[in-house]
Structure formats: C-alpha cells, structure tokens
Amino acid sequence: MSEAYFPVGPGLGMEENFLSLDDILMSQEKLPGRAESALPRLALLMGQGASSTESIPEGSKLEIPLWLAKGLHDSKRRIISVELPKIYKEAWRTVFSADANVVDLHKMGPYYYGFGSQLLNFENPENPEIAQTILQATVSDSVCSLQTFVARFRRIMDSSQNAYNEDTSALVARLDELERALFQVGQKGLNDFQCWEKGQASQITASSLVQNYGKRKLTEVDG
User: In what residue span(s) does the GINS subunit domain sit (predicted)?
Assistant: First the structure.
C-alpha cells in the first residue's frame, strides 16, 4: 500500500522549498519590523484594521510574516525595515557560544535554523555573525568552540543511538524541527539495526538520505 503523502524536505540555506510543509509553516513565523512608507490595503492582513481597504501608516510597528516580509523587502525602495528576533541577537549568540545544548530551541523558535537562514535575505550588519552562529565553527583564544548546529548535532545523534526503547519525549521537546527530524533518522537506524541483529529483518537497507545523496551525485556526473 503506497503512502498518501511523501514527506518533502525543506530547502537549503536561503532558499525555500514550497512543496515542503516545514517550509510552509516556517514562512508563517513573524518578524518585528516597521513600515517605512504607507502600506495601502494591508491593515487587515497585518491584523491592524477591520477592512481590506484600510492602509498602514508610515512609521507603524509591525509583526510581519516571513513570506510577506520577503515580498515587501526591496533594497532600492524603503518599504519596510526588519528587525532581528531576540533569539538571533548578540545576547543569545553569546549563550549559544557558551553552551548551545542548554537552550530549549523549540520554545524559542521551532524553525530556528531555517528561519535564521531566511534572515540572511535582509540587509543586516549582523548577518555574518548570525550565519556563523547557526552553522559554522569559530576559533577563539586558541580553543575551538563549535557553534549551535554542530555542537547540538553531536549530542542529538549520540542520544538517538543510545536510547533504544526509552522515553525520549523530554529530550525531543527541546529540539527544533530540523533536529527532531535528525533524531528520528538516528532512532530509525538504530531500530533497523536491532531488528536485523535479532533476525527480524532480512537485510539492512541504505538510509533514504544516503540514497538521495547518491542520486544527486549521479545527476551531477551525468550533467
């Protein structure tokens, strides 16, 4: 019996995949901002009016869905300005640098990595620091300090491989959606191996992530 829905993965970096439910939900997350010019007929959409004909005055503070902020953003015309959500500001970047594992990312933002990558679409002097905090590693005072994703990834995968038939709800509750997906991949791999080891499976099959990566490499070679 075939599945009614085949999950589609999110886009990479600053690109969105509009067939991905995760990316659709992420695009609804809101950004603090300001109207740099009057916005005709957008008051109802922004929750600031009772009619679709009302406009938002210049200078109004806004809570803008990501998809709309990207549509209104124009580097040449100052239509709106976008501010950083607090979790991406310097104070929180310092917390992540000290110990990324202590943060409840799901509470702060269920799409922390994807949403943070989307912020790079807007001109902000802190963009290099945001990108570094999300994905990269830095060296400070001769000590390598792995940043948020790398630091948390190791613990997530280690936990997924050492929690067979255990209640992992407390751990998973603190993870962002990308981290939850990675944890599930680790758990599935462990479960498949345990079944094979007990003779309950005829063979070990390659992860779908590995298979998809192989297909992409073959496509690149053929191209």
Answer: 89-196
Q: What is the DSSP string of 72-98?
A: H--SSS-SEEEPPPGGGSHHHHHHHHH
Packing angle of the helix pair 90-99, 127-135 (nearest 10 deg): 20
Q: Can you give the pLDDT at residue 61? A: 92
Q: Is residue 139 part of a domain?
A: yes
Q: What is the pTM of this model?
A: 0.65
The more confidently predicted of residues 97 and 24 is: 24
- What local confidence, expressed as pLDDT, does residue 173 receive? 86
Place of tokens 């300005």: 81
Do the domain assignments include residue 41? no
In a domain, 20, yes or no: no
The CATH number of residue 143's host domain is 1.20.58.2050
Burial class (CB in 10 A: 0-12, 13-18, 19+), 145: middle
